[in-house]
UniProtKB/TrEMBL annotation:
InterPro entries: AA/rel_permease1, APC_superfamily
Source species: Methylorubrum rhodesianum
Name of the protein: APC family permease
Localization (cell): Cell membrane
Lineage, uppermost ranks: Bacteria, Pseudomonadati, Pseudomonadota, Alphaproteobacteria, Hyphomicrobiales
The entry's keywords: Cell membrane, Membrane, Transmembrane, Transmembrane helix
Length: 583
């Protein structure tokens, strides 16, 4: 650590909080090592449960390849994030905060955009995860009947003859009559533009789960990491079993992987072709997969809470990436191998409610084993929710400390937990939960909009690495990524923009524009903080974090016009991709 210096030329090891592993009151606590961050990030592999059905329904036999390519891209990008994180041992909040420090020299508005987009990309994991977990719990407590259920068959045998309607309508009537009333109950429901909203049973179950996660997070990062270590083991091991055991028992069914062509249309088993519509569906799969596979970058969200940030930062993201590389390739491959296209496009798989049961059924072992695995999948979702609340709340906290977001978010409690940021997360996600629980269309609209923010954040941050190399070349780096990795990261930044421009419309025609509008909302938020609360001045700590002494020194822009040209190129690529690729 002695090689890392700040703008005052004092080695970081001389700072009492880093040397002793403690922090002053009112700050985050230095209480974990890289293993703590690894366990907090161990909820990321469970994100495969969010969209494995949706991606399969849109890409068919390409699904396993989509997940694999996306995960490889995410792993390569993570080395770029490891470098920029090492520049800021006193910051929390993740890669977006580190990237914003590069862009602030060139635009006051672009820098907070990075932080904001990362937050509204991560925070819906709370509501989306709770909605899926609630559907699993509902399935266990009040199972949904279908046309093949014995109860439906008996009902048709006794009452079907008296009904003057078609066989299909008789079956629908039987399913409606025998379905538990709690599944259709709603305290309130309405439609808001492209989405629905419902305060149904799933909403209230999901809200209870969210409050339970908040209670654990309230204890601070050390308590969260210790809790997630045990839950993580209960989740990672079964996910590995689900990925391996079916392959060992049943082998590989190559028919489910060939031919490698897109579907002719979403949620239809007929194979398509590599035409513009087919490429659009494939790019739509890459777009939504990125929201899950890139997510392990949250492991560097806790730099300010590492006892030894110089050593822990790289290890946290590297080993979290290895875990995700295994599970994000293995689980979707086995899922497709066992179900095939016809199984993957089933409605219960597409909306996520039947994914856990399908994965458990793949392992076999009877109802007891199947129910146990379903419960472990619920734990997996809770783990991902905890990961999201820990990371997104720290993004809000650091954004407030750095002067991007309102001041009230910079408060922490006696355990070093950013409680006001956590409450903001919670209240925002209760509103989103009501939308996510309404129907599958609303669920994927929220997912697509949040991922637009995630792609914008990744674009800005992958390009921030070379800006840091130019403007902060004199600053020692605990980890220095190979130059070729930074080049690949900059290239992937534009590839990701193609995914968004072409693929967001696959999930909802309004998703791209709603995502851009949500991103633009940071403008009034930042202007309120910067010009009204702070009088147009950044906090003093901002300049030290940038390794400059004054605001005047921050005005030195060694990269010249390159950052601006990069932004313009990104907008052009987005618009061309959106125009060219059509369903």
């Amino acid at each position: 650590m002695s090689s890392i210096t700040t703008s005052t030329n004092k080695p970081l090891s001389s700072y009492a909080d880093i040397a002793s592993g403690t922090s002053a009151d009112g700050n985050l606590h230095r209480s974990i090592s890289w293993t703590g961050a690894f366990w907090v990030a161990s909820g990321v592999p469970a994100l495969v449960l969010f969209s494995v059905g949706g991606i399969a329904g849109n890409t068919g036999k390409l699904a396993f390849l989509i997940w694999t390519l996306s995960m490889i891209m995410g792993f390569i990008q993570s080395f770029t994030y490891a470098e920029i994180a090492g520049l800021f041992p006193n910051k929390s909040g993740g890669a977006s905060v580190y990237g914003a420090a590069a862009w602030v020299r060139y635009s006051k508005l672009i820098a907070p955009l990075s932080v904001w987009c990362n937050w509204f990309a991560w925070t819906p994991v709370l509501s989306l995860g709770c909605s899926i977990a609630a559907s699993y719990i509902l399935n266990a407590l009040a199972p949904q009947v279908d046309a093949s259920s014995p109860a439906v068959v008996d009902w048709l045998a006794t009452q079907g003859a008296s009904l003057q309607m078609s066989d299909a309508d008789k079956t629908a009537a039987a399913v409606a009559a025998l379905s538990p009333s709690i599944r259709s109950w709603s305290l309130f429901q309405t439609t808001l533009g492209p989405v629905s909203l419902s305060l149904n049973a799933a909403f209230f179950i999901g809200a209870a789960l969210m409050l339970a996660v908040f209670a654990v997070q309230h204890r601070g990062i050390l308590g969260t990491a210790n809790f997630q270590k045990y839950v993580g083991l209960l989740v990672i091991i079964p996910m590995f079993i689900v990925g391996v055991v079916p392959l060992l028992v049943h082998g590989i069914n190559w028919q489910n992987f060939s031919p490698l062509v897109p579907l002719a249309a979403p949620n239809a088993a007929a194979p398509g072709a590599w035409n513009i519509a087919g490429w659009t569906l494939a790019l739509g799969g890459m777009f939504i997969a990125a929201w899950s596979t890139y997510g392990f970058e949250t492991a560097i969200c806790y730099t300010r809470e590492f006892r030894d940030p110089a050593r822990d930062t790289f290890k946290a993201i590297f080993y979290s990436g290895l875990l995700c590389l295994v599970l994000f390739t293995l689980v979707p491959f086995t899922f497709q191998n066992m179900l095939g296209v016809e199984g993957m496009i089933a409605p219960s798989i597409a909306d996520g409610s039947g994914v856990a049961a399908a994965l458990a059924h793949m392992v076999g072992g009877g109802p007891i084993v199947e129910n146990a695995l379903v419960m472990l999948m619920i734990l997996a979702l809770i783990l991902s929710i905890m990961t999201a609340m820990a990371g997104s709340s720290r993004t809000l906290y650091q954004g407030s400390v750095d002067g991007w977001l309102p001041r009230y978010l910079s408060h922490v409690n006696e355990h070093g937990a950013p409680t006001r940021a956590m409450w903001t997360d919670l209240l925002f996600n209760l509103a989103i939960l009501a939308i996510a629980c309404a129907d599958a269309t609303s669920f994927f609209f929220i997912l697509a909009v949040s991922n637009c923010g995630y792609i914008i954040f990744n674009f800005l941050n992958l390009n921030s690495a070379w800006i840091h190399r130019i403007d902060s070349a004199h600053v020692a780096r605990p980890y220095r990524a190979p130059t070729i990795v930074l080049v690949l990261g900059g290239t992937f930044a534009f590839v990701n923009v193609v995914f968004m421009g072409a693929g967001a419309k696959v999930w909802n025609p309004m998703a791209l524009w709603a995502g851009l509008a949500t991103a633009a909302f940071i403008i009034p938020v930042f202007c309120y903080r910067h010009y009204i609360q702070d009088g147009g001045k950044f906090p003093a700590a901002m300049f030290e974090d940038l390794h400059v002494g004054t605001e005047g020194a921050m005005a030195q822009r060694k990269a010249g016009m390159l950052p601006y040209l990069t932004l313009v190129a990104g907008v052009v690529v987005l618009l061309i991709a959106n125009w060219f690729f059509q369903l």
